[in-house]
């Protein structure tokens, strides 16, 4: 459509030449010969009719090309956005944790959107400019080789200029994209921490900090724009040279009788046609550089390898839920080990607790069981198979997990509880809520299970959120229930209710609990005491109290039998 449009766009100029030719040469005119029409009035009539048809074709093809290019741009953007998002969500948790969320968001959103103008304005402009040069060049070549030379004089200059400018613009637009990512990162971090900002009345300070990022972005953009805008006058000077040559030398040739008047007028118009669109080259170059800087970022995201790839082995159903850690050593990024050779067996169907001081490595250990990270050495087994060999459905599909930091989705309470089993019936949802001791609270809400919960569940208290997350985990009827401080925010009475439901739930599944409050874990089959990444004691509550070791001391402090 763009090609048809360009051809139709060039034809009226030829028609002008033909019209001048009719007036000057009468019945000998080019159009008179082609159509076999003698009358000049009739010849002009024919030209007018052809012109109308050409304009209709031009307008229709322009519309179609516009719609198609935009459709293509939107399609590419959509594919890229979804592919990049999908890749990002398969990247390991460690990658996400070491990178500001806003930076990833900037790539998935801003960088992808940045491609729109390159795709729907830049690409058609490139195609049309090349076509223009070819078509107009053909007319020139037929008319006079000297004039072709003059008219095309600016083109190599413009090409060389583009290459030079391109090299200059590249780092400038890379800088712009980096500044956008910084700004986006700061904005998203601040909005997540809005309560903290308010509580420390840091609004003014934060506004200034965001303004700093915004100024850096504006500055980077201005620097790039200043360089890119300088290219347009340069192109114009080159065009002026070509145009002047055609006007002057073509005019002299016509005066000398070496060039037909009709052809001369066509060539003067054509020089305009040929050269003025070349000023677009500057804009296209700008769009290209912006698009390139964004594409580099998107491709860099797509090129990040998945550090924790899924295995292919499947577990036989029903999954028992036996967990075993053998000589597990683990740590984060290049940091020191946070777990030093952990050996642990949690037989299927048992409830085990992990306790220990803060920073002892309890959460890190749970992350290995869910395979958010892989150990540096040793192995983690589920039902006797190394978790690295299992596919996600066998591993994470068998686990119900309640994290320390609860995330609820924007949606109804029922949607949130059924997140892991979207096809669950209302009765299943209510049973899970009952087991998590949240059913009475939900029933007391005017809209019950249909109550809308805001993003991150901000409309609920900490304890309510925890219980909904617990219901969500229980609804999956998991073979292995993993609870990381899952009841830390509920009162003692509610906790006792949850404990008894969990005991009932625990009859069906293996349970691994991390808790600070030791009363939470009084009834497990075994308690593992972790200190600085090592298991220092293990046994039942009674055995550990009798041992009079760290657990006994901690228990004494928490039950008020001793002071710290
Ligand atoms: N994502 C992470 N990146 C780098 N280091 C981490 C990360 N998470 C935890 N650590 C480090 O690993 C060590 C163990 O942390 P972990 O969260 O496993 O302890 P924990 O026993 O669960 O503590 P708490 O009871 O306070 O939750 C700590 O020294 C911590 O600084």
Care to describe what's here?
The chain has 564 residues and is of the alpha/beta class. The protein has 2 domains: 2-303, Up-down Bundle (ABC transporter transmembrane region fold); 323-558, 3-Layer(aba) Sandwich (Rossmann fold), CATH 3.40.50. It contains 21 helices and 12 strands. Strand 9, helix 19 and strand 10 form a beta-alpha-beta unit. Helix 7 (154-192) runs antiparallel to helix 9. The protein is elongated. The N and C termini lie far apart (81 Å). The model has no long low-confidence stretch (mean pLDDT 86). The structure holds adenosine-5'-triphosphate. The site of adenosine-5'-triphosphate (ATP) has 12 residues, from helix 13. Adenosine-5'-triphosphate binds at residues 97, 332, 335, 338, 356, 358-364. It is found in: Cell inner membrane. The chain crosses the membrane at residues 121-141, 147-165, 234-255.
Percent in helix: 55-70%
**Multimer state:** single chain
Instruction: Compute the number of strand runs.
Output: 12
CATH superfamily of the largest domain: ABC transporter type 1, transmembrane domain
Q: Outline the biggest β-sheet.
A: 6 strands, mixed
**Strand portion, in percent?**
5-15%
GO cellular component, one term: plasma membrane
Domain ABC transmembrane type-1: 1-290
InterPro entries: AAA+_ATPase (IPR003593), ABC1_TM_dom (IPR011527), ABC1_TM_sf (IPR036640), ABC_transporter-like_ATP-bd (IPR003439), ABC_transporter-like_CS (IPR017871), P-loop_NTPase (IPR027417), Type_1_exporter (IPR039421)
Keywords: ATP-binding, Cell inner membrane, Cell membrane, Membrane, Nucleotide-binding, Transmembrane, Transmembrane helix, Transport
